[in-house]
Specification:
Elements: E1 6-13, E2 19-24, E3 34-37, E4 43-46, E5 51-57, E6 80-87, E7 92-97, E8 108-111, E9 120-126, E10 130-139
Antiparallel strand pairs: 1-2, 1-5, 2-3, 3-4, 5-9, 6-7, 6-10, 8-9
Length: 160
């Protein structure tokens, strides 16, 4: 049995009602119009210029990311880059993206929102929807070893 390539999403647009349904995960986000299949079977083609957010969700009837926790209350625990996105309509959202240049997407930013138990699991914000994207901090990463170097003595010998 093959794995499904359809992901449950809610597409939030700047000037219209959100569209919930299924998005083909093999479709490149940010490279053209989105094709969302509604639960009723209608295919919606949404131009990227209209899209504010594409939310990968647990339930299409759940709350929007603007109704959930939008900002971190304290420093995030998840490893990565802590970012803040400013949208064309002056909305602010924070999240965490992987600290890996190979995951940088040319069409936008995919991030994990502040509340891991919320309906919105991952969110894609197209570049056309953003006014600014700021890195607020680097979380985690490789800790530098503080062990002894070869030939280095950390404490003097008193009873030699």
């Amino acid at each position: 049995m093959s794995a499904s390539t359809s992901k449950k999403v809610v597409v939030h647009r700047f000037d219209r009602a959100p569209v919930g349904g299924y998005l083909d995960s093999t479709e490149a986000l940010g490279s053209g119009p989105l094709h969302v299949l509604s639960p009723e079977g209608a295919l919606h083609e949404i131009l990227l210029a209209e899209v504010k957010l594409v939310c990968f969700v647990r339930d299409t009837e759940g709350p929007a990311p603007f109704q959930e926790q939008r900002l971190f209350r304290s420093r995030p625990k998840t490893e990565g880059l802590w970012i803040q996105l400013e949208f064309r309509d002056d909305d602010l959202l924070q999240g965490v993206v992987p600290n890996n240049l190979l995951t940088v997407e040319p069409g936008g930013v995919t991030y994990t929102p502040p509340d891991p138990t919320a309906n919105n699991q991952r969110i894609f914000a197209p570049r056309t929807a953003l006014r600014a994207a700021r890195v607020l901090g680097v979380i985690g990463g490789q800790a530098k070893s503080k062990g002894k170097r070869d030939g280095e003595q950390r404490q003097i010998g008193l009873f030699e």
